[in-house]
Amino acid sequence: MSSQVPGKRPEKRHDTLWFSDGNVVLSAVEESTGDAIVFRIHKSSLAKQSKVFESMFKLPQGKNTDGGVVEAYGGLKLPLVRVPDAAEDVEALLEALYDPLPLFQKPLFSDTPLRLRRALHMASKYLMDDLRLKLIRIVEYEWPNDLDNMEEKDRIMDDIIDRHEGFFAVTHWPAHFIPEPAAAIALAEDFDIPTILPFAYYDLLRCSPGSNWDEDFDKEIEDAMFRFKVTKMGGKSARWDTLSANSLLKTLQLQEYIERQYNTQFQMFRTRIYQCRRPPSECQKTWLDLLKKFGELPGSVQGRDIIRTLRDLDFELTGAEPLGLVCTVCRIVYSSHIYEARTNVWNGVENICSAR
Length: 356
Ligand SMILES: [Zn+2]
Known about the structure:
The protein is an alpha/beta fold. It folds into 3 domains: about 1-85, no CATH class; about 100-245, no CATH class; about 250-355, no CATH class. Helices cover about 55% and strands about 15% of the residues. It has 15 helices and 10 strands. The strands form 3 sheets. Strands 1-2-4-3-6-5 form a 6-stranded mixed β-sheet. Helix 5 packs parallel to helix 8 (about 180-190). It is elongated. The model is unreliable at about 1-5 (pLDDT under 50). The protein binds zinc ion. This is BTB domain-containing protein.
C-alpha cells in the first residue's frame, strides 16, 4: 500500500485518514520514525477552517508556498501538498476535524492537556480559530468556572476525607474532581487559555513536589491499594516536569502571597470587632477564639489552603450560633468580613496568575 517516489523512501498511507473520495493528498514526515506518511483527505475539511490551507490548495502544482510544496500524487493525479509539520501533528489535526469525540472523553489519568496539545498547536499555527476555540473549551469544561464551583468540588473532597479517617485515596482520579494541574498550566501558558490558570495554580500549591503524576499512575495496584492519596494537608501529585521556569516562579510567588494573606486577613478580622448589644465578652470572645484557632499558618506548605481555612471559619461561626455564643447580627457581620477576605485573596491570586 505504498507509492514509490523516485530516490526517496516509500510513503506510507495513513491507516484511517485515507478517504477513497478524498481530493488532496498531504504528506508529512513522522517524527518518531522519519517515514513519510500520506493522508488522502477532502480539501474542504481544511480550507473552510483555514485561510492558509485555502490559499495553499489554490496554488498551481510546483509552487512552493510558505507552508508546503504542491505536486501531483502518483497515479491518482491528485494534488500532493508536502507540509513541513510532523506527521503526528497532521494526524492530530485531522482527527480533531474528522472525529473529535475521543478528545471529549475524560480519561481517568487526567491527561486532556497532553492529548490536545498537538491539535491545538496546529490549529493555532494555521489560524483555525473555530477549531482552536472548540479545543480550548474541552480543556475549560474540566476546570471550575468560578471560585464557588472550585469550592463545591473541594467541599466534596473534604467530606470524603472526613469520612475516611483523614484521607482521600483512589486508584483512578475521578473526572469530576479538579484535574492534574501542571500539564494544564503548561498548555494554558503556551496557548493562551487564561481562564483556567487561577484554579490550576491554586491547586498546584496543594500538590506535593515529591509526587509525580505519571509515576503514581504507573504504580502496580496490588502493592499500593491506591495510587493517589490526598489529605487536608495536600499531597496530590502533579506533572511537575511539564512546567516552565516562569510557571515555577509564579508558583513560588503565589506560595509567598498566600502565606502573607494568613497574616493580612486575620489581622483585618481582629481590627474590625463589631460592638453588638450583648455583653461584650460573649460574641467578641467567641470570635477572637475562632480567629486564634483558624488564623495560625499551617506548618505544611501544601496545607496552606486559605480559601478552605476561610470556609471552615465561616462554618464554625455559623455553627456557633445555636449555642448562643455569637448573636445573629454578629454572625452576619463576621460572615460578610470572611466573604470580603475570600474575594480579596482570590483577586490577588488572579492578578499573579494573569501576570506575564
Ligand atoms: Zn453579637
